[in-house]
Amino acid sequence: MSLTSIARNLFASRWRELEKHNTQGEQLQREVLARLVNKAKDTEYGRKHLFAATKNYNDFVRNNNINTYEELKDDIDRMRQGEIDVLWPGRVKWYAKSSGTTNDKSKFIPVSPDGLKHLHYKGGSDVVALYLRNNPQSRMFDGKGLILGGSHSPNYNLPGSLVGDLSAILIENINPVVNLIRVPSKKTALLSDFEIKRDRIAREAMKKNVTNLSGVPSWMLSVLNRVMELSNKQHLEEVWPNIEVFFHGGVAFTPYREQYERLITSPRMHYMETYNASEGFFGIQDDPNDKSMLLMLDYDVFYEFIPMDELEKEVPNVVPLWGVEKGKNYAMIISTSCGLWRYMIGDTVQFTSTNPYKFIISGRTKSFINAFGEELIVDNAEKGLAYACEKTGAQILDYTAAPVFMDENAKCCHQWLIEFAKKPDDIGMFANILDRKLQELNSDYEAKRFKDITLQHLQIVVARPNLFNDWLKAKGKLGGQHKVPRLSNSREQMEQLLGMNQ
Fold first, then answer.
1. CA 146 to CA 220: how far, in whole Å?
2. Which of 25, 99, 215, 229 is the most exposed place for a label (fewest CB within 10 A)?
3. Neighbours of 502 (CB within 10 A)
4. pLDDT exceeds 80 at position 483
5. For range 138-149, the mean pLDDT
6. Which helix (H) or strand (E) holds 25?
7. How buried is residue 125: exposed, middle or buried, by Cβ count under 10 Å (0-12/13-18/19+)?
8. Which pLDDT does position 362 carry in this prediction?
């Protein structure tokens, strides 16, 4: 019996538990809320917000405001200094560092032992469980997994306390048995210099029977390209004949799909999207024929949602999971066993189904362009670019977009800075196709583009090779969890990038 067959048997009971997501979503979430509140009732936050007297969701809402990082950061910093029982019981030793998407301020997201076990690792386990359920012929455990990670450093020099990329924290604390079925070595995986790490990962992994990949598409592609350089092969399956799946997350896969499909031509190759962030593990693509993800409802996370058209209101209408509607854009609010209470994570989602609860990530609350009332979100951008690439044969490595504000003639537009893996023959045609598709996808954008009265035709600037990597490197953010902000309402990052586009 193969190792994969043994693993499949171990996951069988979890398959049965996951079936509850189809019919018992509300019950699962109410149970999660009760469990979280009960466990945290004796913390400083729990006492202040009357957790001991909280009997239901209405009590929870009445006694707790919506929080951003700014509201929690003082408590988090006290936790980082070693204080116990602040937002979550006990001492929290690990903090995932995140820069967000619209500014350079670092966020330090607590990662408690409960959060590691019942959020992050549980999500990783369920990804494998669902993949094996959908692919009975899999032999993934008969080889090794190539798993990319970031780096970490000591937190305030407290013994055993770490701050860094979530992926590095996960690798540092993972069950030692897992290290037997993964590459690269822990020492290599945790290197801070991505360029050195990239080369070492490629050299270590080339010698192994790699069957599966896990990581952010952009960074994984960089590593795989190095593997191809070193191996002098044309396709990845020539290096790893048994490669069968890429578990990806962190950024949208759409701009990278064609490049992966050119690199890996094996008909046995699968792609599975996950929604795992510094704050928790929230969604898994459970159906290979459906791009939406299953919202994971029995982890240590309770979900709430704010309709995007109410986000700026002083008292927005916040709804629990059982109050959402299909097709609406929502800002996601979470409460977790890491001590994030009614925390606005910054992502926006759109439900494609409510039985079970399935969704797509539609963008960011602070990563969109709405300088002229157009409300362009990342989901629009990804679909528009994918369509333009399909029609022109282009391939995109990275991109960002920002508004060009009105000049003295009241002219304004969107400016797109795009690094192509394969440039279209006609940039103007690519721009026209993208502009028309965005109008088709977004009625507000279409209205503003009407007869060029409010918003003029978009501009495309071709980025030089490695521009975005150089920009991230200059900020000390190359590799790990860091990624290029896609859309911005300001021109700050666009001007930085244009200044480097020489």
1. 9
2. 229
3. 6
4. no
5. 94
6. helix 25-39
7. middle
8. 87
